[in-house]
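cache lookup: miss for this entity combination. No prior model stored, computing from scratch. Input as submitted by user K.M.:
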Amino acid sequence: MAEDRAIIEARNLSVFYGQDCALDSMNMAIARNVICGIIGPAGAGKTSFLRTLNRLNDLNAECRIEGSVLLSGENIYRPGYDVIRLRRAVGMLFALPVALPMSIYDNVAYGPGLVGGICRTEMDELVENSLKAAFLWDEVKDRLAMSGLRLSGGQQQRLCLARTLAMRPEVVLLDEPCSGLDPISTARIEEALTLLKSRYTIVLVTNNTKQAARIADYTAFFLMGEMVEYGVTSEVFTMPRDKRTSDYVTGRFG
Amino acid sequence: MRIPPRHTQKVAVALLGGATLLTLVVLFFIIFYVLKRGLPVVTGEFLLSDQEDMGRAGGIFPALVGTFILPLLAIAIALPLGVGTTVYLAEYTRENRMTRIIRFGIDCLAGIPSIIFGLFGFVFFTIMLQMGWSLLSGGLTLAIMVLPTIIRTSEEAIKAVPVSYREVSFSLGASRWETVWKVVLPNALPGIVTGVVLSIGRAIGETAAVIFTAGQAMQIPTSLFDSTRTMSVHFYILAREGISMKNAFGTAAVLVLLVLFVNIVAYWLMNRFIAKRS
């Protein structure tokens, strides 16, 4: 893939938790406006990788990062780099839907409200557009003041997506966003993601290999802290270069 | 010989049920006894008029006012200090030797008898800082006394806020303070309120520490440097000096009802708050 199109680039990136190495000196470039799927069994380092991209690993005292991650050419681990600006540009959706215990409206408005300088009508519009982009608007437009906790799991995850999109990020990280959802909710999220890639770069960690095959443009296969293979999704699935990849995608292990 | 489980089960239920029953009986007996002896004295006039003849006659209005102001003052001082300490310990520091020492200190503070706080308040606030017997001395002393309760309960409450809420907040570009203010504290509020209610109860019921620091002047305080008398102190003096058992029980009845009232209002507010968010 052309390096100059890359929005995210990991260089010799290693992640340690105490003595344990979760990710070992990996290199990876992710192009703009694509869906990049990351597959691999549990403990492969997928989530660790994802959390280095918005520096959420900073919250873990045990965690240590080596190497660098470039966002639009700038190393986000450079001393003095503004983490808050980074997290506004790189949004994240977690495995389990976490609606904050506040109204649907306030959930979506939470991030933009922190930035400030948005008047009420602009905010209303932003909330509406974000909920529409997450395919949730029609279901909640009449009850925006209701607590987000009262939505179903699938709706909550779309609420979380709307909340992330309301930040107008450049990159959206998704950490197994459908692992707790039924197939219909999953389909809705996938539909939203496919439409969203025209405006965002999406990095999707998934336990569901088929999901990567369905919607990812590029797919990376992680195994035990190593990035084994990375390429165009159809190639990774049909003619993998590494035997371990073919074993995994054909379901021989994992 | 092995006793069959259905028998041990019966014995366990009987013992545990008995313990619960006994607790309730003692509680209701105390309340019933105090109210039975005290309520007949409690009239509008008793509540709203000054005492006469050292409390043998007249009402308890100044003590009622003192009982409202002093605990409120103590909470107003202790709440920001206590919650601030908790937030610092729980959100801004990593668990280490220092935080363990601080926690140990807080626990020790909780175990100190209230008369010691009274003595300390008397020597430090009343004499050394020349605050005299005053609302301020009393409020500060009571504040120190209830700090451990507030810190311990709010710490439990803050720790119970799911980590995932914090992660979401951080991932949306919130700073640590914004996360504390907008996500952690609102979710910990019910627990913090519990601590406040417990503290108000303790402060209202306190006698020893109050006599030493706020004094016992039966007057309506007009400034922070005026001495005041709380109902607990009033009750203590009436009973201890043998002035009037009748009015002592009247005061006790008002005190019991007041504590009950504070609890009911606090839990009502809390439930409304929780219902609004979920």
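stored under new cache key. The beta strands of chain A are 6-17, 20-31, 35-39, 63-71, 74-75, 90-93, 171-175, 201-205, 218-223, 226-232.
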